[in-house]
Amino acid sequence: MFSLVRSLWEVFRHAFARRVTIQYPDEKPYLAPRYRGRIVLSRDPDGGERCVACNLCAVACPVDCISLQATEDENGRRYPEFFRINFSRCIFCGFCEEACPTYAIQLTPDFEMGEYKRKNLVYEKEDLMINGPGKYPGYNFWRVAGVAIGGKNKGEAEHETAPVDIHSLMP
Amino acid sequence: MMEYIFPLIVIAVVLGVVLNLAAGLIWVERRLLALWQDRYGPNRVGPFGLGQILADSLKLFAKEDWVPPFADKPVFIIAPAIVVATALLSFAVIPFSSGFVIADLNIGILFLLAMSSLGVYSVVLAGWASNNKYSLLGGIRASAQMLSYEVFMGLSLLGVVVIVGSFRLTDIVEAQRKMWFVIPQFLGFILFLIAGVAETRRLPFDLAEAENELIAGFHSEYSGMKFGMFFVGEYIGVTLISATISLLFFGGWLGPWLPAPLWFAAKTMFFICMFILFRAALPRPRFDQLMSWGWKVMLPLALLNLLVTGAVVLARR
């Protein structure tokens, strides 16, 4: 019986407590830098696409919301011909970001993507592309990768020694 | 001429105040619950979210008025009307200040108790007519609860009646000029408060609708304005019990400085807020706990209270 009176008092005291509600459209909530929101495709510092269309993100995606088609430019650089994310399916798990070997696909602290038509939630490559390097400034996959492309041979990348001449390895 | 017009004015004012209050209480309850749960509640529509009242009632009126095909149609339709009608009828004997009352019956308390007991027919009939097992369970629970809590509800008031020697509500209020009856009749007040919560089927005694066991109990099958009538009836009931408490135990309209009806309104509003605080704070008892509380604790206490009060009144004579 006494506990009932006590709980009445305890609840009444909450009238003077701070309210936890954030009045959203007027007052924006704090989103951590690692918040998993809208997905973007970033560019390397030179302004080229980071995505090499390896399909790892599409494979990692548990709801199969990413679809892309690989192609190559005249220099032999792979890039996606189209890159499509269906945000009406996306669960913002961030597995695509973890799977990406080139830091191309990244999740950003933004969730305000409401649409009246479901079709508008399908983002094409031009909707996903951003102009900067995102969370990884200074990283350029093609400049550190040991792959030969047009304008860069094997051994010419940063921190890379020239490949061993196999003919010099004769016993 | 004036003696015919004045009662009509009183009736119009009472109806207007009570019905608007019942609608407004939906907003009050949501805001207060939110306050005690560290939220804001409805605060978007209009100033302080007051437009929510209008929006809610418009929405209820616009809903499809659906009677399930398996229901007992006439009873199903009449059940929500009973709860509102009986609750409104009880307000006929509630004095808002001296002279401002529709019918100053000399059996005011009895009329009040009778009307609020009739209200349970609404719940039982709704549960029965819905032809749904959960509704029926809710109706049965409501009737059992009403039977056991009605008994000591009346008995808890008898202490006041014994002291005053009249069933007339204006006499009872006038008898409190020196001292509010909450002091000599504190036990009666507590008993009546608990019985009143049970009578209006409010939390923690809302076993008739118990969302987590019976979906919504007796009004599971109701929608639209029929459902709204149950809600309005419940809020009028809350207002009625609060008004009764303030009349019988807290001196009704008596008070310094402010005009009489304002005192009455303030006291009533305080108890309405208490009702909402009960809802915010207290968990619902099990049904067997409810029944054994009613019969084994509250009823003997009410009888004891009556006995002692009667003895004291006799000894003083």
Protein model, in words:
The complex is a heterodimer of chains A (171) and B (317). Chain A has 171 residues and is α+β, with helices and mostly antiparallel strands. Chain A has a domain at 31-137: 2-Layer Sandwich (Alpha-Beta Plaits), CATH 3.30.70.3270. Helices cover 18% and strands 14% of the residues of chain A. Chain A has helices at residues 2-13, 56-60, 95-99, 125-128, 141-144, and strands spanning 39-41, 66-72, 78-86, 105-107, 122-123. The longest helix of chain A has 12 residues, at 2-13. In chain A, 19% of the residues are buried. The mean pLDDT of chain A is 88. Chain B is mainly α and 317 residues long. In chain B, helix 3 packs antiparallel against helix 4 (108-129). Chain B is globular and about 65 Å long. The chains are: A alpha+beta (171), B mainly alpha (317). Chain A binds chain B through residues 4, 7-8, 10-12, 14-15, 17-21, 23, and chain B through 35-40, 277-278, 280-282.
Return the CATH topology of the domain at 31-137 in chain A: Alpha-Beta Plaits
Proportion of beta-strand residues of chain B: under 5%
Instruction: State the low-pLDDT regions of chain B, or none.
Output: none
Number of helices of chain B: 11
Counted up, domains of chain B total 1
The quaternary state of the protein chains shown equals heterodimer
Helix proportion of residues of chain B, in percent?
55-70%
Intertermini distance of chain B: 45 Å
Shape of chain A: elongated
Low-confidence stretches of chain A: none
Largest interface: A-B, 14 and 11 residues
Biggest sheet overview of chain B:
none
- What portion of residues of chain A is helical? 10-25%
CATH class group of the domain at 31-137 in chain A: Alpha Beta
